[in-house]
Amino acid sequence: MGSMTELKKMVVTACHILDAEGIMDELGHFSARVPGEAAVVMNGKVSPGQAGEEDLVLLDLEGKKIEGRLEPAKEIPLHLSIYQRRPEVMAVAHTHSPTVVALGVAGVKLKAMDNLGATIFGTEVPLYEEYGLVDTFEMGYRIVEAMGPSRTIVLKGHGNIVTGESIKETCISAIWAEKAARLQVQAMLIGTPQVYSEEEVRKVRGQVTGGKAFERAWNYYQWRLGKR
Question: May I ask the CATH architecture of the domain 4-227?
Fold first, then answer.
């Protein structure tokens, strides 16, 4: 990642893409770690689809605002707990992805039934049962513990958390999680879904990530955003 300006531009683009694709809503948030610093950039108290670079806030990993005209979102502990405990994570999306939420409300775990799901979350996604906003570090740490090595987790009745090693990967993974959830619901209506095995997940993940799938998808969704 280059300058802070480029970092902010990419965070805003991710926010706009996820809003345009129906993954974010008026209350979601997206953050990115500042490379080489104990700091995070994320949208302040403004809807992701409306966010501009001037609406982003810079926070340290304890939640203290370093700069920004807006107040940070109430759920910053959700993001910061992950950055504190998962050093490989470079970006976090918290969405209220509709089909993902629906599965969680039904108590059904999101499972890999297609190549995209297998790539971003493996065989299945942990389901966190505790209700409420993630506005304390205590709850944030419980969620990180429940995530384990997973890249994503579903918060029952709330939404999901998607992480990645880049802004592009995280943004696209959030879209693919919703796609996987829709496919799972459709498959459940038709018959008994066929779930990928661990071996199949490893194979498909290697094939997809070995190419330029995230880059290609990011370019595509940027193009769709421009057409709007």
Answer: 3-Layer(aba) Sandwich (3.40)
